[in-house]
Amino acid sequence: MSLTELELETSPGEAEALEERLFALGAQSVELFDAGDEPLFEPPPGSHPLWSAVRLRALFQDPLQAEIARAALQAPDSGAGGATPDARLSRLDDRDWVRAGLAGLTRIHCGGPLWIVPSWETPPDIAGGVYVHLDPGLAFGTGSHPTTAMCLAALAAAPPAGQTVLDYGCGSGILAIAALKLGATSALGVDIDPQALQATRLNAERNEIAAERLPTAAPDRDVPAAAFDLVLANILAGPLVDLAPTLARAARPGARLLLAGLLDRQAEAVMAAYRDTFEIAIGDRRDDWVLLVGQRR
Length: 297
Description:
Blueprint: E1 4-10, H1 12-24, E2 29-34, E3 54-60, H2 63-74, E4 88-91, H3 97-102, E5 108-111, E6 114-118, E7 130-134, H4 146-157, E8 164-168, H5 174-181, E9 186-190, H6 194-206, E10 216-217, E11 228-234, H7 237-242, H8 244-250, E12 251-263, H9 267-274, E13 278-286, E14 289-296
Parallel strand pairs: 6-7, 8-9, 8-11, 9-10, 11-12
Antiparallel strand pairs: 1-3, 1-4, 2-3, 5-6, 12-14, 13-14
Helix pairs in contact: 4-5
């Protein structure tokens, strides 16, 4: 599979907005680099770059989508610090990018009986172990990122036995599949990316989960109202705020809420969007990331 790289330079103050904009325009990944050859370490997640100039490199699976993204960034009203005239596109050689990115992954103990086991590894021989066999494909979610790890730990600590689950922004399907393996009766996986829905279906099959137990849907389909005992969303802070009415409508009274994909400094804004309908607080922290835990009133 070949990819298209979009590269541009910006100031530190505009880097975060441009990164979010690139993801919104369909980038599969975005990396930040020192554009001024300054001997400074890359900053941790959530902090502003220390460099005087920042280079962003975004990868797109669809070359047309990359062209559209460049045109959008070059527009004077791009919404990310004005026009970005020096965005450059280049075609990368064919390579199995997914396998290259997953080469270092190994099985992960999430807590309690729950393990994430890559499809190419053998599960550990542990009595009562619950194993999610995973091949994430092009979709986000391997269990190694702090946001996913916190969600998995929360599921392992309080298994959703007999519950119905909504996984909004399902990515690889890892959270929905883990919930089902821990005893949930059914789960609905929702994602804007067709590749994510495909990855979720394939991973469900790999874990011998029947299609009727884990249906998938795009966000334009109405999510059933008051239908879920557990609502999961591991995405970004902005979409989490926007989705508050949708997720509140989907949750039954007393339903549990797990929100991730946000940084510590973003927690208050996200919690404020949910306080009218949920009792909500920070439930876990790892690095600069936080997990919000709530209960539907």
